[in-house]
Amino acid sequence: MIKLPIEINAVKGFLHPEEGEILYRSCLEIASLGPALEVGSYCGKSTIYLGLACLENNNTLYAIDHHRGSEEHQPGEGYHDKELFDVKRNQMDSFSEFRKNIEMAGLSDTVIPIVSSSEAVARNWVGPLGMVFIDGGHSMEAALKDYRSWSCHLRKGGFLAIHDIFLDPSEGGQAPHEIMKLALSSGLFVEIRRVRTLVVLERI
Ligand code: MG
After folding, report:
1. 125 exposed, middle or buried (CB, 10 Å; 0-12, 13-18, 19+)?
2. 197 alpha carbon – ligand 1 mean position (Å)
3. Active site residue ranges
4. Residue 155 Cα, ligand 1 centroid: separation in angstroms?
């Protein structure tokens, strides 16, 4: 079991500890291939698991999130959190909560926050990556963009992890599942790990 430097249950987010453990272990394995990148950091729960693996290996994690919340985080939606709503500006803002958690976990020099849409960052991205974790917007359009923007930067042997895979549509949205199927049918990826709603594919 991974030893976490902070009380992970106090960090807001939707990642199960067993999923976090798999992210951590997978990220440990790819350190020699290149940095890790996640799309959709929210308050930093997955960032902490991935970041700790990077810290152990002197690797780097790029953590992309516009911090304005996904569709489901907006006022009136199912996953809205009033504590993350900036009343003055009338918009979601998860960045200060994210930064607090990353600092408390001792990951300030390991995790590089990129406060932006994933699409804008991808436009000029050039470096190869060891691992990509997609947990951004869950609309079909957003998930497809993330998959197309980032899976192409993975080195051979690198990992593509995707969160919120629901095989049964009655349990949750299908966009993450759809991009997983796209990746597998491309012939460029094979599934190596799955726990709960997290899947890890290897770029072959
Ligand atoms: Mg998720």
Report:
1. middle
2. 9
3. 138
4. 24
